[in-house]
Amino acid sequence: MGNTQRVSRSGVPRPSLGLFRFTLAVGATVVGLLLTGLLVPFLGGTYFLLALAVVALCSLYGGLASGLLVTLLSGLGFCYFFFPPVRSFRVSDSRDLLRLAVFWGVASVLCWVGASLRRTLEQTRARLAERERADRELRDANAWAVAILESISDAFFSLDRRYHFTALNGEAERLLGRKRQELVGKCIWVEFAEAIGSTFQREYQRVLDTGRPVQFVEFYPPLHAWFEVRAFPSRDGLSVFFRDISERRGAEERLRQSEERFRSLVLATSQVVWTTNAEGRPVEDSPTWCAFTGQPREEFLGGRWLDAVHPEDRERAVRAWRDSLAYHTVFEVQYRLRRPDGSYTPTLARGAPVLNPDGSLREWVGANTDISRSVSAEQALRESERRYHLLASNFPDGLVALYDHDLRYIVVEGTDLQGMGLSRTKMEGHTIWEVLEPETCAVIEGPMRAAFTGHSQVIELPFAGRTYRAHYLPVRNEAGEVMAGMLMSQNITELKALQEQLEQRVRKRTRQLDEANQELEAFAYSVSHDLRTPLRGIDGFTQAVEDDDESTLSPAARGYLRRVRRASERMAQLIDDLLKLSRLSRAELRRAPVDITALAHEVVAELAAREPQRSVEVRIQPSLRDDADPRLVRILLENLLGNAWKFTGRVERPWIELSATRQEGPPIYCVRDNGAGFDMAYADKLFAPFQRLHSEAEFPGTGIGLATVLRVVRRHGGHIRAERAPGQGASFFFTLRG
After folding, report:
1. 56 and 523 Cβ atoms separated by less than 8 Å
2. Which residue from 307, 285, 282 is spatially nearest to 295, judged by alpha carbons?
3. pLDDT in the model for residue 203
4. How many whole angstroms from its chain centre is CA 599?
5. What share of residues in the chain are helix, strand, coil (percent, to 5)?
6. What is the tens place of the pLDDT at every residue in 333-351?
7. What is the pLDDT of residue 196?
8. 287 close to 271: Cβ distance less than 8 angstroms
């Protein structure tokens, strides 16, 4: 892990995390050596166990480097303080040298195990988070697909191969006049028997027989409506999209009836309208032409309309106009017209001949349409196509292709075509059945057709000895209709191999984690059993000496004995706290509804029972509830409220408060007191193990309580911070959720 430097909100650099861990390792080594020095007379040859415990904890917390540092410093400390000659790094006894080598070897193994356990836990946690994200994305994608079907304007239903309804959207319910609960699972030819033998039945059967989509328009008498139907084959049967076009059919009929009467007007646009005689000379004024070009009326009627055309376009315009006059064909040409400000605008000139009843030419009616927007759009389209070809031709290790409704390839580009045994000329204009093997076609046909129903799909495709990840996407026009499909295929052979290696490593690490957990349990039992026994002996023997020889002991000797007993009691408490801290990381988090107010009252009652002579005002907000692990929350409250109880011991009118606030996100709990407080300059050290901001003489303790609180909060995914100054009490803010 990198030793990145942290910066406070004020911009002042804070000590890096790596420096803090090494400092903690050095401090832990010193504490371990001091305790070893005190316990050497009682531990005999097993005094290395305490140093090994310090090595294990530091490697678990700070990683391999911290553990190795403790190992090195502890070994040097043994050489200097315990091995003769004392206060020298020279070891004269070969047995001491052997014990030192054994210590370094065992400690190095503990360092490696602790660091490996730390890395494995972090990797496992990251993988679980990734899987959770993937599951959430899959659920969102399914919900999105259902929402799309419900939001489209077309009616939709799907049939299985026995013509039973499997799904309908809301628009289909409206047009068919039936609820989906009435139709799903029923046969369409039973529920709509009038359609038997109609175009609907024939076309649906053709879709199932050929596997190709169909599109048709048909009138359905029972509903008195015309329907435009598009049916597509699906994996389980067919999917049908249809819409009611009765109004459109009526409009088309009315349009057909008036087509002859307005034929000339339909062929021309109405932006700049003009008329000429049969010889092509303007005979009527055109206010729209004069307004658009700024050309005087007399100049236009004098046949000088070419003066308003861009000089570079005049020859093409004249040639097209002469051809139309000669053959009585529709006149259509693009040229630029001058505007009143002198600029030129691209226009489409279109004219239609108007015939007399005898078939002779009477006049020409035409119009010029401003096509500047479409020209700009065409330029943008060409630029977009250029970018598409540039992107597709450089697509890494794969190919990019567009294909139409008949699954014919339109455009094919790619960097891996040769490796796939394909070519552009072999694919463009051909269907997938003409290009690929039948086995491959069977795999990709469904996803390719699904793209035309608006569904994107991703599949893994073995091909030519490689593995490709193929993305099938719909390509829509401005109206939102699917006009083509897109295939993006990338070679993931090496990625698959790498993924398999990663999964093997995860399985191996998981096994190592299980083994390390078992070893950690055994180590915790050893610490609890092997260290408590000598401590009980120390306490018992000192008590016996004090009781049996009280009259012969000097006051100084009795004081020494009391100090030894207090030290053994502190050591036992330290062992208890260390074991609790280590168990917090291994215990399974079991969330459940927790009455925090009730737990706090229980903890305060226990504190008051221990010191009945004290009078402390305790304010606990009612109805504090949360979803958390009840056992861990009790440990958290015991430490926070216990700290507040302890540090208000020298205040004249002590008070303690537990409250919660909630604005956005999870509730923020606060434990306040008016006790000794602390200096905010050392706030970052509060939650580190063995860090104490007050002396033992002022306030006794092991320095592990707040480290335990931090561990509980982090297990719940929450955060904790502390505020206040010396003499003004302390406030601890924490959450039990992320």
Report:
1. yes
2. 307
3. 94
4. 37
5. 55, 20, 25
6. 999 999 999 999 999 888 8
7. 92
8. no
